[in-house]
Amino acid sequence: MKSTLYRAWLQYSPVQDAELREAYRRVLGTIVLEGRQSELLDSAIEELRSGCRSLLDIEPELLLLGNEMPQLASNEGISSGLQLRVQPAADNVQDLEEGDNSAPGKLGPEGFRLQYLGDSLQERVILIGGSEKGLLYGVFHLLRLVAAHEPLTAWNVTEEPVNRLRMINQWDNADGSIERGYAGRSIFYRNGRFTNDLTRVKDYARLLSSVGINAISINNVNVHEIETRFITREYLPQVAQIASVFRKYGITLYLSINFAAPLHIGGVGTSDPLNEDVRRWWRAAADEIYSHIPDFGGFLVKADSEHRPGPFAYGRDHADGANMLAEALEPHGGIVIWRCFVYNCMQDWRDRSTDRAKAAYDHFTPLDGRFMDNVLLQIKNGPMDFQVREPVSPLFGSMKHTNQVLEFQVTQEYTGQQRHVCYLVPQWKDVLDFDTHAGGQGSYVKRIVSGSLHSMKLSGIAAVSNIGDDENWTGHTLAQANLYGYGRLIWNPDLTSEEIAEEWTRQTFGNDEAVIKTVCGMLMKSWPIYESYTSPLGVGWMVTPHTHYGPDVDGYEYSRWGTYHFADRDGIGVDRTAATGTGYTAQYFEPNARRYETLEDCPDELLLFFHHVPYSHRLKSGKTVIQHIYDTHFEGADAAAALLAEWASLEGRVDPAQHAQVAARLAEQAEHAKHWRDVINTYFFRKSGVPDEKGRTIF
Ligand code: GCU
Predict the structure, then answer these.
(1) What sign does the CA torsion over 429, 452, 603, 553 have?
(2) Fewer CB within a 10 Å sphere, N or C end of the chain?
(3) Per-residue pLDDT at 67 exceeds 90
(4) What's the superkingdom here (predicted)?
């Protein structure tokens, strides 16, 4: 029996309400499946059966109708039950259901339509998938509705994912470690080998598929020695096994590759993308991969970034590099996802003219239009690196002729490392709802990455995973909400953070209204709380170097990473204006450029990202910068302690194992928040000499 911690949001806890349970049992007791059997349908049925078993304590009767069978007319066949059907590939679904007058249009291949049709004689639910995959998503949706105790009469939805590529990036290494992983070791690898037991991989696939994820890269973007060989005959059979687990849940497998593979393992003597032998090598590598994995997705590439090899070594640019790989994958339908996290990581801190925030834009915008159709550029949400607060990367919208993927970080590298609770969906929503003005007003990031603004061949969203082999997958049980929320949000960016939090809470902890209210409230507060006791006003980076956990205000101040706050006795912040600073603001479209450039218009929460100001500068809130720092840090630490108290009030209302797990993490957070508070406040008091107006203790 899998534990509650392990089951995450697929708890399928028994429905206790007798009336509701009976209603569900009536329609889910018989399942009629029309269509040929397939792996995806098998998964859908398996999930449905185990869901029914666990939620309703029934073993549904399954009736299989082959494609050759006549379709069930509305008034014959089963009187009550669930009818599953896959929309004929090239067809319109006009004959959907005679009893249904809403005449739905054609579903996309990943879409589904779920409908309750009940009258006094019969009660039926029809679930139609745009394809087998759509049907699988529909089954997960149906189970979600049952878990949330949604009444049958409210079951009437047509869903289509807004983004085509919905991807997870594992940063797992073959040795079993996970770069920036905070939830144990890899579920894929151990001691340089693939794990033999794929149970956990399968359950991960279920979790991902249940929220609509359709792509995964299974190894770290920093590709080390063993992983460089994943694309060879030696490892491909094992990669293929993993691919087959994910395939059953509609998830396509990708690999991160080493750009220097031809040099290191190919015996070619170079990795120059314009060298004919190198190109031939990659073509052969692609042929080999596809002979093992016919539906292989493609390559994820970190090149010329943080010492990873790339085309620069040969005087070539990113388009040369990406296109070479794209050419090798193209005959097989594969794609190249090329990351834009490119900057000078050997900067001299004395050099005030170089600005890391500008780097991605400067590198990539001149290449717009040069990438092949099967290349996508993967852009981190902000110009720096997943800080608790950053502006949106100005690359979004600036390349009208290039496919783009947005990259989020679900793993909480800079947001408390899954020891602190930090529900990131509101942060991601801010990014998706940001109006770039690239094509006039309304040019939201979500419209760029969904491909609706510049009609890209392919686009979407990717994120770095937060799971490992900890029993609860994510270290902090509340961090499961980030993985869940990521999937749900990129399926439909118009869902609200609150809706997603509530869905997750109901499925994870049950339908006790007091629990839902408390947990959702805690989640919604958690990002602002974390922000308040860590680095202020968008300045970022006041963390312990390398581990990135805990405060160290000057940890990166004199380093080569291009991450500075420039605090002195008079003031703090980075002048990125065009008038007097690095000129970063000019990378935005108007009116954003002017808004960030102008001190009076720049939003408070990003003030120190764009401007260097005296501590006495007054924020829009009316407070001075220094008083804001003191206030937010005192309040933030108090708020962290209050989270613990709120959670304590739920003892006895949630599963004891879940309760204890979260309580332990919240206790640690409350302590650590005090440490953050005192380090930050003391640092700025000593720098500025300005006392706290409220006379609180600063050391
Ligand atoms: C961050 C992170 C690294 C990672 C890098 C990347 O800098 O700290 O561990 O490799 O991002 O996204 O490539």
Answers:
(1) positive
(2) N
(3) no
(4) Bacteria
